[in-house]
Structures are given as C-alpha cells and as structure tokens.
Specification:
CATH superfamily: P-loop containing nucleotide triphosphate hydrolases
CATH topology: Rossmann fold
Order of helices and strands: HEHEHEEHEEE
Shape: globular
Helix content: 10-25%
Distance between the termini: 21 Å
Number of strands: 7
CATH class: Alpha Beta
Radius of gyration: 15 Å
C-alpha cells in the first residue's frame, strides 16, 4: 500500500483545477486496498464527483462518470475493479441504503464511493476512508483525508 499518498492527503492538498483533483484521486484509488468504502464530504461544487472521476480512471472505467443524483447510484465496471458511485443527497432516511441492495452487486475487488455520506448513517463501515473536500478560492479546492481504516493486525 502506498502510504505516501495517504500521508499527503492527511496533511491536506490544495488543487488548482479538475485535472489536478482527478490525478490526485487516481493516485489515491491505485493505493486503496481491495473492497474499500470512500466517504466524500463537502458542499455542492466541492469536487466530490470530480474525485470519483479520477478514481474511475484508476480502475479502468471507460464510460463517462457523472453524479447519480436522481438514480442514487451507478455501477461502473472497470478493467481492474468495480466502482459503485452513490450520491446519497436525495435519501430521506439512512435505512433507504438497505433498499438499494448494493451488496448483490459487489464482487471483489470493488470500491464504493459515497457522496453525502452523512445521509447514510451507520451504513458506512468502521473502516471507511473519509475525505473532506472544500472550495478554498475560485478554482482551488482543498482535499484532506480525515480518517483512514486502522492498520491491519499483525496477529501477535
């Protein structure tokens, strides 16, 4: 696992456009372990979907990646990973996540990227990766990894 990208993101990174944000997301996605959940926190326009586009590129997804605001989620099959992209903005209750039956589509290796994770309540697993995305100034965004999964047990 490439810890340097996680260290950089934990310190906070300022990007100067969508291309930089996507490149950073691509490096992050390549370093993610299999079967990961990524929670993307931030206001409208903070770059959450742009981040998912970079992740999709790392996973070998060929189709266009857009926000699934009205469909709630979209599944993208890449050449090396399945990406479930969830936009939970329109969910009224966290229990609605169970109704989506996403588990039926997740076959290893997969990654779930959740925009508006505060809407899904306890559905997120304890080991989810949390990223805060914020607009600093026009065209510049700050991205910070706020919590990562615990280190694997060494089995002492």
């Amino acid at each position: 696992m490439d810890t340097s990208i996680f260290d950089r993101l934990s310190a906070g990174v300022l990007t100067a456009g969508a291309g930089e944000t996507q490149s950073l997301a691509e490096a992050f996605a390549r370093a993610l372990p299999a079967d990961s959940v990524v929670a993307l926190h931030g206001d409208l326009g903070a770059g959450k979907t742009t981040w998912v586009q970079g992740m999709a590129r790392a996973f070998g997804v060929d189709e266009a990646v857009t926000s699934p605001t009205f469909t709630i989620y979209t599944l993208h099959r890449g050449s090396n990973r399945l990406l479930a992209h969830i936009d939970a903005y329109r969910l009224d209750r966290a229990e609605q996540m169970e109704d989506l039956l996403l588990e039926d589509f997740l076959t290893s290796p997969w990654c779930v990227a959740v925009e508006w994770p505060e809407k899904v309540g306890s559905w997120l697993p304890a080991g989810a990766w949390h990223l805060d995305l914020a607009i600093e100034t026009a065209g510049r965004h700050r991205i910070r990894l706020t919590r990562s999964p615990p280190a694997p047990s060494t089995g002492a």
